[in-house]
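Translate structure to sequence.
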């Protein structure tokens, strides 16, 4: 039996002489791995097909689902969205690469649902459609949204009585905790502002220096490592920090 669903390509692995194993996050079934045959050959029948399976590609699939098998098969695929600049713009590509790696590092097979897929899809399309000034805060906003969708988030807000953000507890508190995992000062205040952003169109409204962006990215990596077992720091985070200099 086949099902139609949207999917975002996360990563690919070469298989045999002409095939790929493609990991995707789907709207209906969460994380899935698909065998895609014959897309790496030089013949006319395969021409251009491999471009469908670049990381961050958003596709419409008609795919088979066998719950007893780890590897599924695709009957048909086509673009759900065609990027205009994401793959060619250095900043956009760095931001998208960070998003994709965060998804790979955090999402497990059993985690699905349209709200998570919609957040991924809308964020990638927003990056593609907007200028640099509009997307500088997107890695921070997405990190907060992803944490919330995965079941952990920050609570409270920055104010005189609670000026410290405890990363381990995910809570604004009155004084710095002894464990050492916390934010204070300007970074804590900016994070409180970012927490209020619900619409990506308002992401640019929070004024942040690149120094503070890089600092918050570092703390968010720490936040994920404190709340997800076996979480490894995203390698693309370092690339993004460089781009934001």
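Result:
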């Amino acid at each position: 039996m086949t099902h139609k669903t949207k999917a975002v390509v996360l990563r690919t692995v070469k298989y045999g002489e002409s095939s790929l194993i493609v990991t995707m996050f789907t709207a209906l079934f969460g994380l899935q791995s698909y065998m895609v045959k014959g897309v790496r050959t030089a013949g006319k029948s395969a021409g251009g097909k491999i471009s469908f399976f670049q990381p961050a590609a958003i596709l419409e699939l008609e795919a088979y689902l066998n719950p007893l098998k780890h590897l599924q098969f695709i009957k048909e695929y086509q673009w759900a969205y065609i990027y205009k600049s994401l793959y060619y713009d250095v900043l956009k590509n760095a931001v998208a690469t960070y998003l994709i790696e965060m998804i790979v590092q955090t999402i497990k097979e059993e985690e699905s649902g349209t709200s998570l897929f919609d957040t991924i899809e809308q964020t990638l399309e927003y990056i593609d459609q907007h200028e640099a000034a509009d997307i500088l805060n997107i890695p921070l906003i997405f990190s907060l949204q992803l944490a919330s969708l995965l079941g952990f988030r920050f609570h409270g807000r920055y104010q005189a009585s609670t000026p410290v953000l405890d990363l381990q507890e995910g809570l604004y508190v009155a004084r710095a905790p002894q464990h050492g995992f916390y934010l204070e000062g300007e970074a804590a205040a900016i994070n409180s502002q970012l927490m209020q952003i619900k619409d990506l169109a308002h992401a640019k409204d929070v004024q942040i220096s690149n120094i503070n962006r890089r600092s918050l990215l570092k703390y968010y990596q720490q936040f994920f490592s404190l709340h997800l077992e076996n979480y490894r720091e995203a390698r693309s985070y370092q690339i993004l920090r460089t781009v934001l200099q």
